[in-house]
Structures are given as structure tokens and as C-alpha cells.
Inverse folding.
């Protein structure tokens, strides 16, 4: 269970805030920034190790048929994959799993967030009615490029 304390309380009475860790993580609220999470190292490491093991297990289990079934199951948490062509859906699953495995191995998941955002952006492109259903008129870039929002003149 997560409890809450102010960052000021941590500075004024650190032992009281540390004692709260016996009940779980402590969310430290700050006036001028986003909250911070204070947690014990061992449970956090165990969570990362468990995620890494699960990612490896799932990836080892997936053959082509299982990958296709996973595409269907991922439509629940990621409904936008429905607008991707079948081959792109499979590519999404493969990249998602490979990135999840790599992220779990190092305990950092920012790259997975980036991959999800990129695939959602691809789905948005396919959803455009001006684009061919199979995406044959889309041009893919070899390298990322920053582009401006076309809605802003």
C-alpha cells in the first residue's frame, strides 16, 4: 500500500517518513514538481527481476501462431492496433516484445514507452482516410526526424 508524505516532512522528520516504508512505498508530494516515490530497494529489484523473467518467458513461448493470437489479445489494451494492416500488427508485437525484454533486462522502460508512442503514431497515420488501407502510399523514414505540427501555421 502506498502512503503519502510531503517532501518537507521528509526533510524535517526523515525517520517518521522512513517508518512509513514498512507499509509500502511513500509518495512524496512537492509544491513545485511532480511527486517522487520513495521505496525500499529489494522489492523494487524483485519487481524488475520478475518483469524480466516474464518478458523472457513470453518471448520464448511465442511461435508464429502464438504471435498471431497475441495480436488479437493486445487489441484490448491497445485498441488502435486495429487500424494497422496485419503485417504491421505482427511487427508491432515483435518490436513490443523485443523492446520489453531488453527494457526488463536493464530495469528501464523508457524505450518501451517510446516504441508504444511510435506505433500509436503509425496507427494514426493508417487511420487517416486519405491514406490507402494497406499504407502503400506511406513513406517510412530511415532515421527519425522532428517535424512541426501541420495544424499550426
Amino acid at each position: 500500500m502506498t502512503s503519502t508524505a510531503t517532501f518537507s516532512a521528509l526533510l524535517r522528520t526523515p525517520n517518521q517518513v522512513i517508518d512509513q516504508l514498512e507499509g509500502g512505498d511513500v509518495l512524496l508530494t512537492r509544491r513545485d514538481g511532480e511527486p517522487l516515490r520513495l521505496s525500499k530497494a529489494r522489492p523494487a529489484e524483485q519487481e524488475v527481476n520478475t518483469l524480466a523473467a516474464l518478458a523472457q518467458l513470453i518471448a520464448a513461448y511465442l511461435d508464429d501462431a502464438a504471435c498471431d493470437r497475441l495480436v488479437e489479445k493486445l487489441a484490448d489494451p491497445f485498441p488502435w492496433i486495429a487500424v494497422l494492416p496485419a503485417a504491421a500488427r505482427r511487427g508491432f508485437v515483435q518490436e513490443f516484445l523485443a523492446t520489453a525484454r531488453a527494457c526488463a533486462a536493464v530495469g528501464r522502460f523508457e524505450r518501451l514507452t517510446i516504441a508504444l508512442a511510435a506505433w500509436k503514431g503509425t496507427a494514426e497515420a493508417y487511420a487517416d482516410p486519405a491514406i490507402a488501407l494497406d499504407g502503400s502510399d506511406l513513406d517510412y523514414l530511415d532515421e527519425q526526424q522532428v517535424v512541426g505540427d501541420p495544424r499550426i501555421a
